Amino acid sequence: xxxxxxxxxxxxxxxxxxxxxxxxxxxxxxxxxxxxxxxxxxxxxxxxxxxxxxxxxxxxxxxxxxxxxxxxxxxxxxxxxxxxxxxxxxxxxxxxxxxxxxxxxxxxxxxxxxxxxxxxxxxxxxxxxxxxxxxxxxxxxxxxxxxxxxxxxxxxxxxxxxxxxxxxxxxxxxxxxxxxxxxxxxxxxxxxxxxxxxxxxxxxxxxxxxxxxxxxxxxxxxxxxxxxxxxxxxxxxxxxxxxxxxxxxxxxxxxxxxxxxxxxxxxxxxxxxxxxxxxxxxxxxxxxxxxxxxxxxxxxxxxxxxxxxxxxxxxxxxxxxxxxxxxxxxxxxxxxxxxxxxxxxxxxxxxxxxxxxxxxxxxxxxxxxxxxxxxxxxxxxxxxxxxxxxxxxxxxxxxxxxxxxxxxxxxxxxxxxxxxxxxxxxxxxxxxxxxxxxxxxxxxxxxxxxxxxxxxxxxxxxxxxxxxxxxxxxxxxxxxxxxxxxxxxxxxxxxx
Length: 496
Ligand code: BES
Ligand code: ZN
Ligand code: ZN
Fold this sequence. Notes:
alpha/beta; six-stranded mixed beta sheet; 15 helices; 19 strands; about 20% strand; binds ligand BES; binds zinc ion
């Protein structure tokens, strides 16, 4: 689908479909000047159809109209934006996705669409709409023999020619945000059969190969043994697939303002190990590398968006399997910083591999570390499937991330690193245990990770809920991998 931007008078557009956004109003169309004008031109035909079809302009509502003689497009599609005073960028993003989804159900191939949300900055409106239509257009086609038909072109229309430059900037930035997000969706949707740790390593190498500003270092099991990475190696020992620690570095063209480390959990399949998961819980566990995929998604586009910070992308990748060589509940292992861990549940494996990755990240002396991990079912119980839990030892860092999430249109909420719960993971025969009992599981997991970052400002993003949707979430996030996290990280990196 080709996206373009132009100034237009709307009436002379010759696309198969002309899309117009409509605020919810009474009488209908009040507050949406273009449609009011067009309705007057058509002697009230549009408002009559709206009345017959009970179209009010509520968000997600649509209305088809066919008016061949007065305007050049064959059909008009009216799309509800919700109430004008409530119409934020998320409404704009969703309404654009609804427009695309609706037209895709017809034989139409070309769309012209007046940019929605006239009270907001034009650059942001086009950014949000580009995300909405591209993310809505995504489908994971790798294993489908029959490919779906495509929309050929989507033209954004502006009534004022002076807005074209800003609109184009919004569109170009959004294309990078989308590219990063869809890159993650493809990786996360790929089943464990075709997504072993080696694949994530190959992706990192490929990104670095195509970009002079990105370098990559890969630590294999031999090196990990020398480094004392007992967390990664112990989880990996039950699998036939070898594990890796990957370290990518992005260096900006001009002097870096800060050094940021992004750390991802890359469990390509989480069976639980000997603490085997029930079958129902295992079904979606190909998604357990979404944190690592997010790091790769950022690096896939980082040179194009060119943040002014040095970025270290670090991920540990393993497969968690039960076998005769698997780690046993009760075993004691040693992390790279020499702390010992009693592994009482082999299904709490993410924190073990992250422990090594965080120690490694801390040694790079970054100004901040952000880790992303599908870490706990408890976080999904606490915040539901759509919201990421943010835990941090530095309130200002948590605030920056929450702000970036809001501006990116991703939902995140802060959870506390409650000191008084630290005793729940106190070890009996080792320094700490890898589980903390029945309650507050997201927090005890966060407290566990905190043991491995020393005093470095650090934030932990538990993306177990939003990384993978078990049902359709909204018009642009369908069942399957969402790519959640990438857009927040990109906004965060661009904030310097
Ligand atoms: N990968 C899972 C967490 C998860 C759950 C991700 C649901 C996505 C959706 C993680 O490794 C895990 O199994 N955690 C256990 C920890 C428990 C044993 C302390 C959990 O949450 O049940
Ligand atoms: Zn697990
Ligand atoms: Zn896991």
